[in-house]
Design goal:
Length: 288
């Protein structure tokens, strides 16, 4: 298996649920604490040892390219240090047809190599940046999988909002470093959900995925969903494994206002310079 050195960030979504803020600013550029959302994701990928990153954008998202332009980076020593020798590339999904279609735009960039996918509107907070991705890549390599997927446990009442895993093993998966997946169910009812393990915005794939994206019919809203492409891989006998978020690790979805507010609050509390002062301010506000 070839060494994994490429990552893809789909960032072409319109951000309808974050209007009116996203009328002029892409949701991936909304600030969370000191940084725009996508910068956390870029830094996570770099910390995992990835060398090349393709960002899939759309109209009105030039600010993403401008933010990481070399002329801008010379004025941001910390970001320049994080990037190191990592190379950034861009392509467009001009007509939004779903996540699988967006990832499909990366086929020429990926070539015949395995690759990581990190959604551009989801931040993973952990004690060690890049550690979650490294576990996902490690499971992919050890299991010689066609795909590995990150999962988080959600409240049973929330399963209808996510893609949910059906593990092959009927035993407890909570302590396993990785578990094999039998099926994925997109937004099941509470009664139909085979578990409470929800897909969590990080994947590793072999390039065989692109064959299955081409075979995936449009689903709800006419969009081509990555869950459906993965299900086709499973039906064809490919090995797909899951890895769970661990203790002290959390996903923040910058796709709706409640989660965005929570992310901004949490990352502001963790700020090295102003976090303690902000905490005191928040405590005072709650007392008042």
């Amino acid at each position: 298996m070839k060494r994994l050195r490429k990552a893809v960030i789909p960032a072409a979504g319109i951000g309808t649920r974050l209007l009116p803020a996203t009328k002029s600013v892409p949701k991936e550029m909304l600030p969370v604490g000191r940084k725009p959302t996508i910068q956390y994701i870029i830094e996570e990928i770099c910390a995992a040892g990835i060398e090349q990153i393709l960002i899939i954008t759309s109209q009105h998202k030039r600010t993403i390219e401008d933010h990481f332009d070399l002329d801008q980076l010379v004025n941001d020593e910390k970001l320049l240090e994080h990037l190191g020798d990592v190379r950034l590339f861009y392509t467009r999904q001009s007509n939004p047809k779903g996540l699988a279609d967006a990832i499909g735009k990366a086929e020429h960039f990926v070539g015949d190599e395995p690759f990581v996918v990190c959604l551009g509107d989801a931040i993973i907070q952990s004690q060690s940046p890049g550690s979650v991705l490294r576990r996902l890549i490690e499971a992919f390599t050890i299991k010689r999988a066609s795909a590995t997927i990150l999962f988080q446990r959600v409240d049973q009442q929330s399963v209808s909002r996510y893609g949910i895993a059906q593990p092959k093993s009927r035993g407890d998966t909570s302590t396993a470093p990785a578990f094999e997946i039998q099926d994925l169910i997109e937004k099941p009812s509470i009664q139909e959900a085979p578990s409470n393990l929800a897909v969590t915005a990080r994947y590793v794939f072999t390039p065989e995925l692109f064959d299955y994206i081409r075979q995936t019919p449009p689903g709800r809203g006419g969009e081509i969903q990555i869950t459906d492409s993965i299900r086709l891989m499973l039906q064809a006998g490919h090995s797909v494994w899951g890895v769970q978020l661990g203790e002290g690790e959390k996903r923040y979805d910058i796709g709706n206002y409640l989660s965005y507010f929570e992310a901004f609050f949490r990352f502001s509390l963790a700020d090295e310079e102003f976090g303690q002062d902000f905490r005191q301010y928040a405590e005072q506000m709650l007392r008042d």
